[in-house]
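re: that chain from earlier
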Amino acid sequence: MRAVVQRVSKAEVLVDNSILGRINKGLLILLGVAEEDSDADIGYMVDKTLNLRIFEDENDKMNLSVQDIKGEILVISQFTLHGDARKGRRPSFSKAGNPQKAEALYNQYIHQLRNSGITVESGRFAAYMEVGLVNDGPVTILLDSTKLF
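^ sequence. v structure.
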């Protein structure tokens, strides 16, 4: 499971010109599910998402998590995070999870985030989405449940 985590002052997702999710200060998560991902990957990613200390404290040090600041989270499915462009010019998506499995794990990830008490919004799995954000910092962190990076 891979995620691009962006610290935002606001973000929203639209499908067919309708807003599906909108947040204020918090995290925009672009989440890609791999074929080999399991519940253990979800647990790792949820823990990292909730406890990643990328918000400033009173001394302007990145020392606070989204939970600490009572922020919000917007989660967007993005299978292209598992694109492999090392060979040729068109990426291969063979490592991305099949849609049924990926959707189930994506929904479990969102459910577990919501269980933490944080406001969590989301896009629509497999839909064409328009995502708008104001990246705060900017701060962007890459996560991978296999600890590749």
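Helices lie at 39-51, 99-115.
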